[in-house]
Amino acid sequence: MEKTLNAVVDGSTLERQVSTVLRAVAQTFARAAHRLAERRRIAREIAELHAMTDRDLKDIGIERCDIGAVARGAFEPFESRRNRTRLSGG
User: Fold this and answer.
1) Rounded to whole angstroms, how far apart are CA atoms 58 and 5?
2) Most buried among 68, 71, 83, 84, using CB within 10 Å?
3) In this structure, is the dihedral angle defined by the CA atoms of residues 38, 42, 43 and 44, taken in order, positive or negative?
């Protein structure tokens, strides 16, 4: 009886461990899929912005050298940078 009980406990422990590992693997794949989708979005946005003329880019307030930052969401308009520098005494 005791051996049978230990086998059940060990079996349920093994099931929990397997479940934990499978959940971790699934989360890893989900994160990788999310990063891949984000990279594709950024590449698509960069391509669209590079296809625009310099005049079109100026109309929306960016320069060609800002395209990468805009696509990654890290763009800070020149006026904001200038004001921040002015406020910090630089």
Assistant:
1) 74
2) 71
3) positive
Burial 18-57 (b: 16+ CB within 10 A, else e): eeeeeeeeeeeeeeeeeeeeeeeeeeebeeebeeeeeeeb
11 or 77, greater pLDDT: 77
Q: Yes or no: say if 40 and 62 are a contact pair by the CB < 8 Å rule.
A: no
- The predicted model scores a pTM of 0.64
Q: What would the pLDDT profile of 8-65 be if each residue is shown by its tens digit? A: 556 688 899 999 999 999 999 999 999 999 999 999 999 999 999 999 999 999 999 9
- Distance separating alpha carbons of residues 16 and 59, to the nearest angstrom: 58
Q: How far is CA 35 from CA 12, 30, 32, 54, 71, in A?
A: 35, 9, 5, 30, 14
